[in-house]
Amino acid sequence: MVHLYQADISVREEVTVARESTCQFAILGMLCREPMSGYGLRQAIARTVGHFWQESYGNLYPALERMEAEGLAALDREERSPGGRVRKVYRVTAKGRRVLAEWLRRPVVPHVERNELLLKLFFGARVGPKSSLAHVERSRAEAIELLAALRLIDEDVCGSREDHPELPYWHLSIRAGLLGLEAHLRWCDEAREALQRLAHTKRSTKKKEKRDER
């Protein structure tokens, strides 16, 4: 048991390290498109890969400084924002392009998914179907909103950049998000029906128990 626990910790530590180190590859990929500031990276990540990849914005600026020190990125210019703040705009270096290409060829590191909704549903019998149904309804509403936003992104990307050489790759990632959300909505509908049946059964059982008590 101790060995299994230690092995589990080791796997989780490896996944955590891998997750932290991939921040620089997300940045390199964005800088390959065009030079960007930390603020520009925030916007670009949210606008393009935000539906499947999220970075802590507090990590972007330290990562950029570290990447500059390692020769993966270089200062391209400085810009002044409308508010008067100076922003450093970075570009990718030849070394950065090589490092990104090497990473893109490596096997994908498996990740351990943490899904709070499923965890709460798994133990849902402790509180009854009402709370679980509320969680599913909320998740369904969020998925509908995300799906609408992703469809707009898909229309914008595919409609305005038909000749872009990277379009097929962008479209594949967007399709994964669209199909995943559509599947999640189908699951939400099934879960909602099942939980509604459980709630109905529970109410019927309570009514019967009250009649029997009389």
From TrEMBL:
Keywords: DNA-binding. This is DNA-binding transcriptional regulator, PadR family. Residues 27-102 form the Transcription regulator PadR N-terminal domain. Gene3D superfamilies: 6.10.140.190, Winged helix-like DNA-binding domain superfamily/Winged helix DNA-binding domain. Residues 114-195 form the Transcription regulator PadR C-terminal domain. It comes from the Bacteria. Coiled coil: none annotated. InterPro entries: Tscrpt_reg_PadR_C, Tscrpt_reg_PadR_N, WH-like_DNA-bd_sf, WH_DNA-bd_sf. GO terms for molecular function: DNA binding. SUPFAM superfamilies: Winged helix' DNA-binding domain.
